[in-house]
Specification:
Number of domains: 3
Shape: globular
Helix content: 25-40%
Structural class: alpha+beta
CATH architecture of the largest domain: Orthogonal Bundle
Oligomer: single chain
Distance between the termini: 42 Å
CATH class of the largest domain: Mainly Alpha
Strand order of the largest sheet: 8-16-17-12-11-10-7-9
Number of strands: 25
Length: 524
């Protein structure tokens, strides 16, 4: 694997992300991580590594990681850490095979992953390309869109956070401040599949009688190369779209609407395509959850959500050309409130009073999520890229906007899904344990841990104060909810489930097959 010079931002970011994965998923489960302030020590494939860190479980790095060699500490490179991680994961497979235990936890494959090193290198090179492109690009004037396009380095606990397939990805990359015209297609009425309210799509442009307008992502059209003819007509360029952090979901300023497209492209773990049952599921959940979320908002007035009222596609390319309509966050925020992506706040939040700001943040974001789970059996997926935080003129969190119904599930046994297609019903449900693990991972591990680390900086005392304040808020809510057992366990300090992104990438598995590893609970 070619290596950028040690010390370049792309190399440093890639090394830091992979090291965090090794702490959490390789050394941690084996008991091979030791605090030695100001360092964290870990052993991977027999080699002792160390890094200066702060931020608790967020593992923010201060300076380059090092490895022990010949009694001296030497700088660690991405190439070396990849080799160590590969050796450790392969040894774990062999150990389980020798014991007759199969492939081992988190679906580790029987055969080593020969693609892994190349994927790490590709992600690192993508970061370098993004950093090179950003200075010459014009960021959006809209503060919400600017926050969507701020995630240069990606998921801090993912071995390939910026992995992208395809040669033309940079022209569509939100991190490079991309903006591009959609392509407008016309689909003949008898070759159409659609459901729900599609007023927003029809307003994008004219279509001849007997046809309906279907916007398409130009990257997806280049990949699919659909056959045009009487049933599917190319109408040419349409309105300009701005990609949000997920890449495939865009905002169309002229229409004030978000559109979620299929992309036959692997981004981090998954090929980002709207399955047919996800198209139908979005409309079903929009209708089903509207009264539930309205009821929750009576107790948690800060809670908002972005409905997905309709989808449209062409029968010949049902999944490839499927598009889901999603409301704009500006339509659900109160006047004077600015939506900002939570993941961007995790990069840069510096309020004058961190404790007051944090208390407002946890109240707005966490409390409605837990209410929905325990009161209504609804599993939100409130990770950093699925939550927008509404800030008032002083920068205080006053609203939380939840989005992306693909990740929303219903707890099995608590909802009547008898009228749905079995595949749609199955895709919409989680059993209680799986649903709770998803809520806890997304809300606490992925989300609040990162926000708290940013607020506290290097002040470990402040970090403890923040988590005590969060615990007090959650304890009061637990009393209001009747102290359900999972919430009691959480407050008692039960380990938190952290998603095993390294293992699922090593296993070449679908993201939905990712397992969890336990990490320390800061609420303890």
């Amino acid at each position: 694997m070619d290596v950028l010079a040690i010390g370049t931002p792309a190399e440093e970011a890639t090394l830091a992300a992979l090291l965090r994965c090794c702490v959490r998923e390789v050394a941690g489960p084996r008991g091979l991580v030791w605090p030695a302030p100001p360092y964290v020590l870990l052993r991977v494939a027999g080699t002792l590594l160390r890094a200066r860190t702060h931020g608790g479980a967020a593992l923010r790095l201060d300076g380059p990681p090092e490895r022990l060699e010949g009694g001296s500490w030497r700088p660690l490179t991405v190439t070396e850490l990849v080799r160590l991680a590969e050796a450790d994961l392969a040894d774990r497979q062999d150990e389980h095979a020798r014991q007759g235990l199969g492939a081992g936890p988190a679906h580790l494959p029987v055969e080593p992953n020969g693609e892994f090193a190349g994927q790490v290198a590709a992600s690192r090179d993508a970061i370098a390309a993004i950093l090179a492109a950003r200075p010459a690009a014009e960021p959006p004037a809209d503060p919400w869109l600017a926050s969507e396009q701020a995630l240069v380095y990606g998921h801090p606990f993912h071995p390939t956070p910026k992995a992208r397939d395809g040669a033309d990805w940079l022209r569509y990359a939100p991190e490079a401040h991309a903006a591009f015209p959609l392509r407008l297609l016309a689909v003949r009425h008898d070759a159409l599949a659609e459901e729900g309210d599609l007023t927003a799509l029809d307003a994008l442009g004219p279509a001849a009688g007997g046809y309906r307008l279907l916007p398409a992502h130009p990257w997806q059209l280049a990949l699919l190369r659909p056959a045009y003819g009487p049933e599917l007509v190319d109408l040419g360029p349409g309105p300009v779209a701005v990609p949000t952090s997920s890449v495939r979901t865009v905002y169309v300023p002229d229409a004030e609407v978000c559109l979620k497209f299929s992309l036959d492209v692997r981004i981090t773990n998954c090929v980002r395509k709207n399955a047919w049952y996800e198209l139908a599921g979005a409309v079903e959940l929009t209708s089903r959850l509207a009264p539930v979320l309205a009821e929750v908002a009576t107790r948690h007035p800060a809670a908002r959500w972005l409905p997905e009222p309709g989808y449209r596609t062409a029968l010949g390319q049902r999944e490839g050309l499927g598009v889901i309509v999603r409301a704009s966050p500006w339509t659900v925020c109160d006047p004077g409130v600015t939506p900002v992506l939570a993941a961007a706040l995790a990069l840069d939040a510096a309020p004058a009073d961190p404790l007051a700001w944090w208390t407002a943040y946890v109240s707005a974001v966490a409390l409605p999520v837990l209410d929905l789970y325990f009161t209504h059996g609804v599993v939100l997926e409130p990770h950093l890229q699925n939550v927008l935080v509404g800030l008032d003129a002083a920068g205080t969190p006053v609203q939380a906007i939840f989005r992306d119904l693909e990740g929303v599930k219903l707890v099995a046994g608590r909802h009547d899904l008898g009228g749905l297609h079995p595949a749609v019903a199955s895709a919409l449900t989680h059993d209680p344990a799986r649903g709770w693990a998803r809520v806890v991972y997304c809300l606490f591990v992925n989300h609040l841990t990162e926000i708290a680390a940013t607020l506290a900086g290097h002040d470990d005392g402040l970090l403890r104060v923040l988590w005590r304040a969060a615990r007090d808020l959650l304890d009061r809510q637990a009393a209001e909810l009747g102290r359900p057992l999972p919430l009691r366990d959480l407050l008692a300090g039960a380990p938190l489930p952290a998603k095993a992104n390294l293992r699922v990438r090593w296993a070449r598995a679908a993201d939905r097959g990712a397992g969890y590893v336990p990490i320390a609970n800061p609420l303890a």
